[in-house]
Amino acid sequence: MQRLLSSATKFMPLAFVIMAALSVTQFFMQNGPSSGTLATYAHVLAAFFVAHAWFILGLAAFFWLWTFAGLYYERQDNNIEKRGWIMDILDRLTNRQALEDKITKEPEAVLIDAEQLAASLKSKVIGQDAVCDDIAAQIRRRLALRQRGKPVGVFMLAGPPGTGKTYLAKRLAIELSRKLLHFDMTQFSSGAHGASQLFGSAKGYVGSDTYGKLTGALRDTPDAVILLDEFEKAHPEVHKNFLTAWNDGFITEASNGQQISTTSAIFMMTTNAATDALQSLIVTYANDADELRRASTHALREAGFAPEVLNRIDRIFVFRPLAGLDIARVTALEIEAMVQSYGLNITEGGIAVEVLLDMMRDQQKRGGAASSRDLLRAIEESIADTLIEAKQKGYSKVSLISNNGVVVAKASA
Question: How far apart, in whole angstroms, are the C-alpha atoms of residue 144 and residue 158?
Answer without folding.
Answer: 26
